[in-house]
Structure formats: C-alpha cells, structure tokens
Design brief:
Elements (H helix, E strand, L loop, with lengths): L5 H4 L1 H17 L4 H29 L8 H25 L1 E2 L2 E2 L4 H26 L7 H6 L2
Antiparallel strand pairs: 1-2
Bound molecules: protoporphyrin IX containing FE.
C-alpha cells in the first residue's frame, strides 16, 4: 500500500456515530422509531470503529517513537478509545437482549459525550496528517514541531 488505509475507513464510524447522536437527541422529542434508528447506527459505528482502530494501529507502528507526532498519535488514540467506550456504553444501555429499546436520558448523555470525544480525536487525527505529515511523507514526521 502506498498510502494508509486508515483515512478510508474512519468515515464509516464518524458518519454513523454523528447521525446516531443526532437521532438520539431527536428521540427525546419524537417517536420511538428515531430511537431505534439511532441504535442501529450505533451498532454500525461501534463495529466499523474497530476496523478503523486496527488500521490506525498499523499507522501508529510506522511513526518514529522519538518524533513529536507520536505524542499526538497517542492522544488521538486515547480520545477515540474514550469515544468508543461512551458509544458502546450508550448502545448497551438500550439493549434488551438483542432488542433495541428507546434510549433513556443517560444513554443519550453518553452518546453526546461520545460525540464530543469523537470531535477531539478527529482534530488530533487531522493534526497528525496536516501538521506532522503522518501518512503523507515519512520525512515530514521527523522535521515537524
Ligand atoms: C487504535 C486506534 C487508532 C489509532 C492508533 C489511530 C491512528 C491514527 C494515525 C497514525 C493517523 C494519521 C495517519 C493516517 O491518516 O493514517 C490517524 C488519522 C486519523 N484518524 Fe485515527 N487512529 C485510531 C482510530 C481512529 C478511529 C476509530 C477514528 C474514527 C472514528 C479515527 C479517525 C481519524 C481521522 C479523522 C484521522 C485524520 C485522517 C485524515 O485527515 O486524512 N481514528 N489516526
């Protein structure tokens, strides 16, 4: 592979988690179907995020341990794992066996928290690529501050 596969996969969890949080908020004011849609989106986001994490770990392994980009990459990883944990907890709170139920207030709060961490992690991911050149030009990683 001449370029990382990670950026290709991150769109799935970002899009589905974002829409899930929107649907969760909407479910507080509308009917049960919106809450169910949010649950389905959370299932997709939580699973596709695992695939994005695997490819992210592959890219992490290519960063020089001494480079300043490594610190940002670790922050990106911790933030996204926190986001994943919030979304997964929100999902489990609305599961009754395998049946998705209407999200309660706590499940919606967890979903919003997951989204806040997702945005922070995305910011760090962008920093890695556009400021430190990770995944673009190996030489830039060593020279960026
Ligand atoms: C173990 C977890 C993860 C690690 C170690 C990791 C690592 C990285 C690395 C090294 C980069 C820069 C190089 C590249 O773009 O391939 C990056 C970029 C990025 N990551 Fe992750 N990542 C992880 C999980 C995720 C997940 C689950 C998401 C989304 C839900 C995500 C979203 C992003 C975004 C948006 C970028 C910027 C891509 C771009 O602008 O081209 N990452 N990540």
């Amino acid at each position: 592979m001449k370029h990382p596969i990670h950026p290709m996969l991150v769109h799935f969890p970002i899009a589905t988690w974002f829409l899930a949080t929107l649907a969760d908020l909407a479910s507080l004011f509308t009917n049960e179907q919106v809450g169910w849609v949010a649950g389905v989106l959370l299932v997709i986001g939580t699973i596709t995020a695992l695939l994005a994490m695997i490819t992210g770990l592959v890219e992490l392994g290519k960063i020089d341990a001494q480079s300043p980009a490594m610190k940002i990459a670790n922050q990106h990883m911790v933030l996204i794992m926190t986001s994943w944990s919030f979304y997964a907890a929100s999902l489990f709170m609305r599961l009754n066996g395998t049946v998705l139920e209407q999200p309660g207030t706590l499940a919606v709060i967890l979903s919003v928290a997951g989204f806040i961490f997702l945005c922070s992690a995305g910011w760090m991911g962008g920093k890695l690529v556009y400021q430190y050149g990770v995944g673009i030009q190996p030489s830039q990683q060593e020279h960026s501050k």
